[in-house]
Amino acid sequence: MSAYPVFKAAAAHVAPVFLERELTVAKACDLIREAARNGAQLIAFPETYIPAFPVWSALWAPIRNHDFFARLAGQSLVLPGPELTQLCEAARSNGIFVSIGINERSEASVGCLWNANLLIGDDGRVLNHHRKIVPTFYEKLVWANGDGAGLKVCDTRIGRIGMLICGENTNPLARYTLMAQGEQVHISTYPPVWPTREPKAGGNYDLASAIRIRAGAHSFEAKAFNIVSSGFMDGKMRDTLVRIDPAAAAVLDNTPRSVSVVVGPSGEPVSDMLRDEEGILYHEIDINQCVEPKQFHDVVGYYNRFDIFDLRVNRARLMPIAFDERKSGVETTAPEEPATATANERVVRFRS
């Protein structure tokens, strides 16, 4: 008998219905049902799957992208909302864990967006809501900075699950934060393409190569499984962008594509790899395989020096405003914080 969980995972290497929130949510629910029928107990969707990854920010100057930004904002999710309810019901009714990337809009602003990832439990509850800490390169033109509230590992019946978005998997402190919480299954999500140069000039960023390095490094250091789910660029997405500017075709067609794969605790790929076709990748995850490598390097156990190194993480959810309802001479119903607490401690206790 296994001491730790064994389960089938699914990485959805799929395209959204480009910039169509409701249709993309419907497609996601169909894929959730398909994965569950095939025995998967966890399905991971790509970065900002709903309603799309804003690749136009790499193609044109900001002054040419106002219409795309407005469309993206209008099709982004406000949480909670009806789209989240649909996704949670699909997870609950099919008894499957769901990790899904979304564009999230702030309740306080029609133009403030976050790159977010949700982990939904097999009972339909939201277990984690993570916002990308720092948007990467041209992504800063679209998304605001996130915070540390989602830097946590969820203890589930299929293992301890953590997640980071795209370039965050290059951040050693973010990765260590998850390792130090006993992460056994890591979910990393990516876009379909990530152009950085004109392909004809050479030197374009090879996202597939970067993923193999990052996923291998994290799995090897954490002694954890890494489920990589990347987006797929379908004809509708490509053609929509090329209709705006035919010159975009050369960039989109010749930029290296992303990949979806499962990497084992040794740092080596243990599954097939999806790249040039849309589909769902399945692989069995056996948490027992995380045990033996921990004897070699356990960076959150014996193979570290906690008397030398000290990492502190602020997991407060950042808000645009905080109200103090107290009036002079009138007691509030909320208990006062201890006089010895610092301002930061008060915020963390109130918002955690």
Characterize the structure shown.
- This protein is α/β, with parallel strands linked by helices.
- It has one domain (6-294): Carbon-nitrogen hydrolase (Nitrilase/N-carbamoyl-D-aminoacid amidohydrolase), CATH 3.60.110.10.
- 28% of the residues lie in helices and 19% in strands.
- The protein has 10 helices and 11 strands.
- The strands form 2 sheets. A 6-stranded mixed beta sheet has the order 5-4-3-2-1-11. The chain has a 5-stranded mixed beta sheet with strand order 6-7-8-9-10, with helices on one face.
- Helix 1 (21-37) packs parallel to helix 4.
- The radius of gyration is 21 Å and the shape is globular.
Strand content: 15-25%
Named at the architecture level, the CATH assignment is 4-Layer Sandwich
Low-confidence segments, given as residue ranges, are: 334-352
CATH class: Alpha Beta
**Which structural class do the helices and strands define?**
alpha/beta
Task: Compute the separation of the termini in Å.
Answer: 38 Å
Number of helices: 10
The helicity comes to 25-40%
The overall number of domains is 1
What is the name of the CATH superfamily? Carbon-nitrogen hydrolase
Order of helices and strands: EHEHHHEEEEEHEHEHHEEHH
What is CATH's topology name? Answer: Nitrilase/N-carbamoyl-D-aminoacid amidohydrolase
| Radius of gyration (Å) | 21 Å
How many β-strands, per DSSP? 11
Question: Strand count, sense and closure of the main sheet?
Answer: 6 strands, mixed
Please outline the helices and strands.
Blueprint: E1 6-13, H1 21-37, E2 42-44, H2 56-59, H3 66-75, H4 82-94, E3 97-105, E4 113-120, E5 126-131, E6 154-156, E7 159-165, H5 172-179, E8 185-190, H6 207-222, E9 225-230, H7 235-244, H8 248-254, E10 261-263, E11 279-286, H9 291-294, H10 343-351
Parallel strand pairs: 1-2, 2-3, 7-8, 8-9
Antiparallel strand pairs: 1-11, 3-4, 4-5, 6-7, 9-10
